[in-house]
Amino acid sequence: MGSIKNLLITIVSLTSLLQSTTHAFVQAPSPSPSASQSLLVNPNNILGAASNTVDNLFKPSLHILDFCQGTENPALCAETIAPSLEGTFDPIKALETEMEATFVQSKKVAKIISEALRNPNTDPRARGALEICKSQYKSIMETVNDAVELLNQQNVVDAYYKFSSVISDQATCEDAFVESPGVTIPFSDESHTVYQLGGNCLAVMDGMVNNRNRFLLV
């Protein structure tokens, strides 16, 4: 219970910070962040859920806080899932929502990669790494789709093993830039968010499959 309270405090702090930032934007608008700076902060924008006010963004239930405990990024997990769940808490639906967020964020990265490859001003030294990343993110999106289909069949075990390649594909893309002297990855923040969302999904499924959380398979 103490860890859940700590997570709730973290989310409340995020809400307060976001409210303060929103107020500052009203007083003095600032330019929109670049593609490489923007993060998956508002899950409503990503999943297409209805959004009313900043106050409504981060109010996860205790069920959601419990569900997100032990994930790669519990606060991001709760922020992503909360707007899409109503009524009785359904752990499978919550997991599917986090998988969908992983897909949408991966699609965002894939778009950045495609734009960079089409841009004649892109550093030639980065093109090899970008081509590798293009292939890896195509694989990630296909894998997430397959895992969601398995989840819809209540086959969490196979979804878990299928989804595990998401993290390795994401790492392969980042490694391609590490191994390319003189260039840096132009979507570092977005890539890290894919890692966190994917890690959240894997942590939840690992708990279900290996009986390490109370959302056990029946």
Automatic annotation (TrEMBL):
GO molecular function: enzyme inhibitor activity
Keywords annotated in UniProt: Disulfide bond, Signal
Stretch forming the signal peptide: 1-24
InterPro entries xref list: Invertase/methylesterase_inhib, PCW_Enzyme_Inhibitor, Pectinesterase_inhib_dom
Pectinesterase inhibitor domain segment(s): 59-204
Family: Belongs to the PMEI family.
Name of the molecule in the record: Pectinesterase inhibitor domain-containing protein
Source organism (scientific name): Vigna angularis var. angularis
